[in-house]
Specification:
The complex is a heterodimer.
Chain A: E1 4-15, E2 18-30, E3 35-39, H1 46-54, E4 61-66, E5 69-70, E6 81-84, H2 96-106, H3 113-126, H4 142-154, E7 160-164, H5 172-189, E8 192-197, H6 200-206, E9 209-214, E10 217-222, H7 224-229, H8 234-239, E11 246-255, E12 258-263, E13 266-271, E14 283-288, E15 294-295, E16 309-319, E17 324-330, E18 333-339, E19 350-354, E20 361-364, E21 370-372, E22 378-379, E23 385-386
Parallel strand pairs in A: 3-8, 3-9, 6-7, 7-8
Antiparallel strand pairs in A: 1-2, 1-4, 4-5, 9-10, 11-12, 11-14, 12-13, 14-20, 15-19, 16-17, 16-19, 17-18, 20-21, 22-23
Chain B: H1 9-13, H2 18-21, H3 23-55, H4 59-63, H5 77-89, H6 93-100, H7 112-143, H8 149-161, H9 168-177, H10 184-209, H11 212-220, H12 225-254, H13 257-262, H14 270-277, H15 285-315
Helix pairs in contact in B: 3-15, 5-15, 7-10, 7-12, 8-10, 10-12, 11-12, 12-15, 14-15
The chains are: A alpha+beta, B mainly alpha.
């Protein structure tokens, strides 16, 4: 049970063309039992961060602390952490049973072989891999290997769990099951965990706290819902959520107790109450989540709204079963939305999309910082929107 | 590139060839390939065949012109002479006479068992040295970057291409200076040094493919560097280590020129030892052939047992997660 602190950590690698900064002045606190997800595109430094937590890399600057104790110089084998690797990294020459027990055997605490066996059986039962104990890793399927790799991590009940893209090598179906399983295991055991992934959906599902990294720098550290609704900047907004957010250049002008937003698709008003007090930007970027867009004519939306209306011609409809991603072409670029009632429209139709003003994201154009995020609204049964107290 | 879609089944058939698309054609191809394979096999295996049949011929039949393809009079004379000479020079005459009541007498005076023992000593020693040094060297070359690394690798490769006899004279000087002349230790060191570069190349291929996450996993499982090496790397490298050992072993086992030059005949290994059967004007080729077969048997048995690891080690299919 460990509280993890990463305090102004920088990691540089010396390359042939000078040094490369992999992680840049990163600070993250993870409370005991919390599930932290490090999310970001390839090469953003998330794996390096994880390896520094595990002791496989040493920070160039800054401290890594477990329960307030600085562990920078403590070797991986003395940190009592366990790691699950993307390629599973099982020992190919050992049976599953020995793979699971190997860490216990090497531990300083003198355990009898009976004790180890009992513990291995316990974990194998928990993960439903009792039948595989005598097999070698080469004889296992991807999902089974993943379970063994998980088992190897939990068998020791370490201070920290580290996961390095553990689901990336699995097929889509398995990924979903294992995701839930990892989440359940972690809550059950209550062990502080750090999990690296580039898959935002995975991050949203299992995280207590998401740290979004880009180019080695922390973009935002927040709960999944906050990351979605109040992305700190344009990068986070684009990285989180699928399909991608629709973005338009716009200008913002105060207009009494409202702001007028002008963009190529027209203009609309947003109550000033939705904005922070000191907005001085006029050049902005506005963003619409595909999920928040709805057809103006459809009753799936709200009857009373004052949002922008965008005329589009439907180009492609990608049905996903219960819903569809609709790609439209408007005068000012393309517009993507997800609709549940997609059977009513066909490719080539012209459709008017609209969005509630409280769901519109507004970013400053130069700094790309968030001015106004998405506000969760309650829709009553009649379809009337109650604006939240802002 | 656009592809034309054939309009009818007939269009497909225009591309057909008799050789590739008819049953008769495929039979013909199989036959031709079979003949080619047989010819190659004959070319490769004929010397071995000739060795075996020669060992069963009488001296008279060997000298007969034209030579016979297979022995008309099968005889074990060659083998008898080899075995007798071993018994005699090994000093077992009395023992054999008391046990079997056979009077051993032989014109030749060569201890085949002794030759094999010498060769095993030298070859195993050389194999161990080559594997130990080659593995350590390749691990460093694979895992660390340092100035001159590529040059070093090229030097290792170049040393393999160098004919050994070219360094014979300096080697002779070196052996004299170090007082290694006529010692098996000298040959062990020499053969070990000659084969280590090959082991470096072979094992470097293995270590280059070695997944670093497994080493990380071992560290996470609280292994010290030594424990990682002992419990994880060595077991996984087993096949490649065996392949390296066999390679070094075989080179030492077959080497003639250095052994002939740097040893006196009391300490001969197998290759120079066999050469001593070829002496005088009247060479008994059946004896030479029989001796060659007898000394090959221990190695053949050993190789048959471990050849599966050898192939896996060379092809590098050693790591499967």
């Amino acid at each position: 049970m460990t509280r993890l602190e990463i305090d102004s950590v920088t990691k540089r690698f010396d390359g042939p063309n000078g040094s490369i900064v992999a992680v840049d002045d990163l600070s993250i606190d993870v409370e005991d039992g919390e599930f932290l997800v490090l999310l970001g595109p390839s090469g953003c430094g998330k794996t390096t961060t994880l390896r520094m937590i595990g002791g496989l890399e040493e920070p160039s600057e800054g401290d890594v602390r477990f329960d307030g104790v600085r562990v920078n110089e403590v070797k991986a084998r003395n940190r009592d952490v366990a790691m699950v690797f993307q390629d599973f990294a099982l020992y190919p020459h050992m049976t599953v049973e020995r793979n699971l027990g190997f860490g216990l055997e090497r531990e300083d605490a003198d355990r009898s072989s009976d004790e180890i066996e009992t513990r291995v059986r316990e974990v194998a039962e928990m993960l439903e891999i009792e039948d595989l104990l005598d097999k070698k890793p080469a004889a296992l399927s991807g999902g089974q290997k993943q379970r063994v790799a998980l088992g190897r991590a939990i068998v020791r009940e370490p201070r920290l769990f580290l996961f390095d893209e553990p689901l990336a090598n699995l097929d889509a179906q398995l990924r979903k099951t294992m995701r839930t399983e990892i989440d359940e295991l972690q809550s059950e055991m209550g062990i502080t965990s750090a999990y690296v992934t580039h898959n935002q959906e995975e991050a949203m599902t299992i995280a207590d706290k998401i740290a979004i990294l880009n180019d080695g720098a922390l973009q935002q550290l927040a709960a999944p819902a906050d990351v979605f609704n109040s992305p700190k900047n344009l990068f986070v907004a684009q990285f989180v959520g699928s399909p991608d957010m629709n973005l338009f250049d716009a200008t913002l002008t105060p207009d009494g107790d409202r702001y007028r937003v002008d963009f190529s698709g027209g203009d609309f008003h947003v109550p000033a109450a939705f904005f922070p007090d000191d907005v001085d930007a006029s050049e902005v970027i506005i963003g619409f989540r595909p999920q928040d867009l709805f057809r103006q004519s459809s009753s799936e939306g709200r009857s009373d709204h004052a949002g922008p209306v965008v005329d589009t011609e439907v180009r492609v409809i990608e049905p996903l079963g219960t819903e569809a991603i609709v790609h439209g072409e408007s005068d000012d670029g393309s517009l993507t939305s997800t609709l549940t009632r997609f059977h009513e429209i066909a490719e080539g139709d012209s459709v008017q999309f609209t969005i509630a003003p409280e769901h519109v994201y507004v970013f400053e154009r130069d700094s790309e910082e968030l001015i106004k995020g998405r506000m969760d609204t309650e829709t009553d049964e009649a379809g009337t929107v109650t604006a939240p107290d802002a | 590139m656009s592809t034309d879609t054939p309009d009818s089944v007939d269009d497909f058939r225009t591309n057909q060839s008799w050789l590739y698309d008819t049953t008769a054609g495929s039979y013909l191809r199989s036959i031709l390939v079979g003949i080619a394979v047989l010819l190659c096999a004959g070319f490769v295996l004929f010397p071995l065949y000739w060795l075996v049949v020669t060992s069963f011929k009488t001296t008279a039949e060997i000298q007969q012109i034209p030579p016979t393809i297979y022995p008309h009079d099968w005889t074990l004379e060659g083998f008898r002479l080899v075995v007798e000479s071993s018994i005699r020079s090994g000093g077992y005459e009395d023992l054999v006479q008391r046990l079997f009541g056979v009077q051993v007498s032989s014109a030749i005076d060569i201890d085949v068992i002794g030759l094999i023992a010498n060769s095993l000593k030298v070859s195993i020693g050389a194999g161990l040295i080559a594997v130990a040094f080659g593995t350590l060297g390749s691990y460093v070359l694979s895992r660390r970057d340092f100035a001159g690394k590529n040059l070093l690798m090229s030097l290792f490769l170049a040393s393999l291409m160098f004919p050994g006899t070219a360094i014979m004279v300096p080697e002779w000087e070196l052996f004299n200076t170090l007082n290694l002349f006529n010692t098996h230790l000298g040959l062990v060191l020499l053969y070990g040094a000659m084969t280590a570069p090959f082991v470096v190349w072979l094992m470097k291929g293995f270590f280059d493919d070695f997944p670093s996450s497994i080493i990380d996993a071992a560290h996470m499982d609280q292994c010290s560097p030594y424990e990682t090496f002992r419990y994880v790397i060595v077991p996984m490298a087993r096949n490649s280590l065996i392949a390296s050992f066999i390679f070094a072993f075989l080179l030492a086992w077959n080497e003639l020129v250095f052994a002939l030059t740097l040893l006196a005949n009391t300490k001969y290994t197998v290759p120079p030892g066999l050469l001593t059967f070829v002496q005088g004007f009247n060479v008994q080729w059946n004896v030479v052939a029989a001796a060659s077969i007898l000394v090959s048997i221990p190695v053949l048995i050993g190789l048959a047992y471990i050849q599966q690891y050898f192939v896996q080690g060379l092809t590098g299919g050693a790591i499967k997660g």
